[in-house]
User: Fold these one by one.
Assistant:
Number 1:
Amino acid sequence: MSFASRALVAMLVSASALSSVNAAEIAVSSVTASSTFYTYNATNLINGNGLVGNLHSGNWEGKWLLDSVTTGNLTFDLGGLFKVASTTIWNYGPGCCGEGRSVQDLSISLSTDGVNYTEFGSFVLAKPETDPFGGETLALGDTTARYVRFDIKSNYGEQSYTGLSEVKFNGVTAVPEASSLAYGLIGLATAGLLMRRRSSAR
């Protein structure tokens, strides 16, 4: 088998392997909020504070709240392009000050550049009734994105605050689109043929 043929096969096998990798947890780079009450910092949503296994303790130190409003938004920076398979959300839940602060209506939008967002869908989150409490997983369709925005539309009855406890994302590093891969293969094949011709000319 020629050099070019071997290289083409290797690239095709690698691309196939990458596309079949199981989704894993994405280490979120940062999160910003439209507002934050007191020390209920948005960083609590991505640092595992309050989680014991897959359950949240309900302690206020591990939660985030909007500041004196019931609607707002969060923007998560995943730190690079990923095919985002799902998000798991631990709602505000019981513990400090009542589960009425839990998010009810939520829309999720995704972006590759942090400027142009496309809404993926609207969701109704469950209100946790027990303490500690588990998360709720929402499918995000393997959408390629770096930024994920949560638009919080309503809560479960609290008049002044709305919050969440923890958010995680699962996915795989985004691979080139089929057209880009095809161009790359063509380029490699051309380079291989040129090398072969040069070798034959010697």
Number 2:
Amino acid sequence: MNRRTFLKAAGSFAILLPWLGQKAFAQGLGPYPGPFLMCINAEGGWDTTMFFDPKLGNFSKNGRRINSAYDKVAAVGPFSYGVVDFEYTANGNTLLLHSHEAFLKAYGSRLLLLNGVDVETNAHPVGNQRVWSGHVATDYPAIGALLAAKASQTFDLPCAYVVDSGAYIKTRGLVPLSRVDAGGMRSLAYETKFPRAGGSQLFTPETSRRIAEANRERTQKLESQLFLPGSKTSLRRYDKAMLAKSGLEPLAERLPSAFTPLNTLRPGAGTALDTTLQQAELALYGFATGTMASASISLGGFDSHSSNNSTQKTRLGHLFVLLEHILNKASALEVSNLYVLVGSDFARPPFYVGTGDTAGKDHWNVSSYMLFGPKVNGGRVLGKTTNDLYAQPVNPQAPETPLPENQGGVVLKPSHLHYELRELLDLSEFNTVYKLADGKTLLNANNRVRLF
């Protein structure tokens, strides 16, 4: 292998390079047992008044109507919602994707809802960073990257943090990103097999062993011939990546020949969710085999500057079908230590731009989060908004209760959630370098907002 060939090969395994502080592969530490984290980004800015922060009546400042999608509010337990179905319409036919009532009756006891979260921006990139890192500083790592880095300190994780396009997924170099689909995962794991389901062995096990041994010998020989530090570093990364590939086989063996399409979950609903469903299932199988720690996936199409009602009904319907499938599939795969966090860049304002069916909504800084997980006390709504969708200050010791700021109340921010998530997931060691603050005040045990 000459130097050019080697460097090209090293680059091709970039998705598998372990974090620099990670244990060497193949040390018999066993699969990673969790916690696992699935981050789902409703990309573009969801309309929170269309699901669990409903508003009726007129916008107080100019008489414009807050919602034309519904004129009645109902509730399941502590959760309120506007009475409107999540629907998909095509070729004159309307299909029910999901409903607030059905989702809440099935999963409301597991849901922690945060309303009135001020992301303090209406810009997509800043909102994404704030929502998924808890901070607006450049290149703060996403919460998924922190968990993957922490897990990789001890466990052999060939693809600790798997992501798709969209959302905020920066890592600050703490852990590599794994951008790979199921087909790519199988090809990496089975270099000695034809890359198709049920494909025959390309080499015998003995021949495969000899090839691997010859590759190790070539690597060692090349290392003795290299003098430049950069070349030696690339060689070490290549060697670790080759070891990491062997850790993918349990995942590749477990992956189904085909993932669940939307039409299986909702016959006639088309294919608009298929790619996201596949990425979610890939991550769940990764969690089930202990080869992944966290995942970030994004569902686009929420930026409803026109046709807000129909756009949000359809994409929220897809979101709740996706959530339902993730929760059910995790249970079927016995992934019990899973946390699912759902957020969006920001929200939509309490009034429309334009009239009629094409009326849209622009950007609004007050949004929501949804969270599920084994240590999450579900069946609760924390944080509140006013009738015209401004965030209300809450009691930091009891965030379900409004409390004026002059009496110690605080407006919920993404930083409050991330501080609590780091505590919950045993990531507080990152607070020293990646500090979280409410405005200019650093968060600590004395001024935290207790969400769990």
Number 3:
Amino acid sequence: MCDYSLHTVASRDAKIDDVLVSCRFPGTETRGFCTKDDPLTAVCLRPGTELAFQDDVRIKGIFFRRKVGAHLARFRQIDTNKPTEHHDALEFSNGRIVKVTDLATGQRARVLQMPADAATRRTTAPITIELRATQL
């Protein structure tokens, strides 16, 4: 999902194996993800999408960038009851939650896994097959 503040920016959905770059979009103060080949198009993530960052993730600070202490993250939304705040966030493998707009720019991440799509979920019970060893 792309945050509310990116509605004026061209966007597309993420795909497995996309290599994303944390970036700031022209005309906004919002950070998000794009690809190195198309820095003007926001790449939107669905809640549950898993990312692997190339390096230890850094977040912006007042004077210095701080490290998160993790490489793996799952995209989620937070503070959805506050309509004028950023909702897009990453929950890292160490439990830390960071808003996407707080990421330092220029960091690379690969989309490892997308969440299951409700439309493709199985609607019937799985078939169980029992295999028996034959005697020789």
